[in-house]
Write a structure and sequence with these properties.
about 45 residues; mainly alpha; about 85% helix
Length: about 45
C-alpha cells in the first residue's frame, strides 16, 4: 500500500472516530462505505 493510501486510511479512521463521538450517524455511514471501498481496492491492488 502506498504512503498516500495509508495516510487516507488514517484520516478516515480519525474522522469516523470523531463523527461517532458527535453522533453524526448519516455521515458515519457514508465514510464507512468509503472506507470499505478503499480497503477493498488496496487488497485487490497488485503487490
Amino acid at each position: 500500500m502506498s504512503m498516500d493510501n495509508e495516510v487516507c486510511l488514517v484520516w478516515l479512521a480519525d474522522a469516523l472516530q470523531q463523527l461517532r463521538q458527535e453522533e453524526r450517524t448519516k455521515i458515519v455511514g457514508y465514510l464507512e462505505a468509503v472506507l470499505e471501498e478503499v480497503v477493498l481496492e488496496a487488497e485487490m491492488a497488485p503487490k
